[in-house]
Design brief:
The protein is mainly alpha-helical and 203 residues long. It folds into two domains: 72 residues, no CATH class; 83 residues, no CATH class. The chain contains eight helices and two strands; from the N terminus they run E-E-H-H-H-H-H-H-H-H. A two-stranded antiparallel ribbon has the order 1-2. Helix 2 crosses helix 3. The C terminus is likely disordered.
């Protein structure tokens, strides 16, 4: 299977489509996938174009091509259902973390991926996932920040210190994390529909 190594192309209905395998493109695709201000169809087309160029847009079986694109981006791993992001758990937006990634890769591996003309997404992703971690904080800056973001503030008994740490987490969230979209409850949705109906507008 191509997913066991570093893939360079995918095949759809007998036609090969060359992948732009540089890690920067994959990061851009992940940013696009998380951008809820863009419709699903537009996001799909943007990802296909980023990875396969004009040839991808001309593919007649774009559903299959998108499926393979997402499989490539996830390195062949099974896609898990997306859960609503909690205010207590944060997901880093790697498009905002360039400086942290540069410092962390230099700290652990002695190289800066952004100084390289080309680096396969799989090689970059593997190194990213294996960056140093430590509960004592003596690890790369990216994972130190991730640990602060996902720390359990309820364990801090001192109110002043807990509030201070909450402020730090919020600043880091704004700077480095995927934006948390407000979730509309079923009750809020029904209330909105009732309001519009009272104005003579049926949704």
């Amino acid at each position: 299977m191509m997913w066991l190594s570093n893939p360079e192309y995918v095949k759809v209905d007998g036609t090969e489509y060359k992948i732009n395998t540089d890690f920067r493109i994959a990061l851009e695709c992940n940013t696009i996938a998380q951008d809820e201000s863009i419709g699903e169809y537009e996001r799909a087309l943007a990802i296909i174009y980023k990875l396969f160029g004009e040839e991808g847009l001309n593919c007649k079986n774009q559903n299959k091509l998108l499926e393979l694109a997402l499989k490539y981006l996830s390195k062949g791993e099974e896609q898990k259902p997306v859960k609503t992001k909690s205010r207590d758990k944060y997901e880093l937006d790697y498009s905002k973390c360039k400086g942290l990634i540069q410092s962390s890769f230099k700290y652990d591996y002695g190289y800066d991926p952004y100084e390289m003309k080309y680096l396969h997404w799989y090689n970059f992703s593997n190194d990213l996932q294996n960056l140093s971690t430590s509960e004592f904080g003596n690890c790369c800056i990216l994972n130190r920040i991730a640990m602060v973001l996902n720390s359990d503030l309820s364990k801090i008994k001192n109110t002043t210190e807990r509030n201070k740490q909450a402020e730090v987490k919020e600043e880091l969230r704004k700077k480095y994390c995927v934006e948390i979209k407000p979730t509309i409850t079923k009750e809020q949705e029904e209330s909105a529909k009732a309001f519009y109906k009272s104005l003579g507008i049926n949704l």
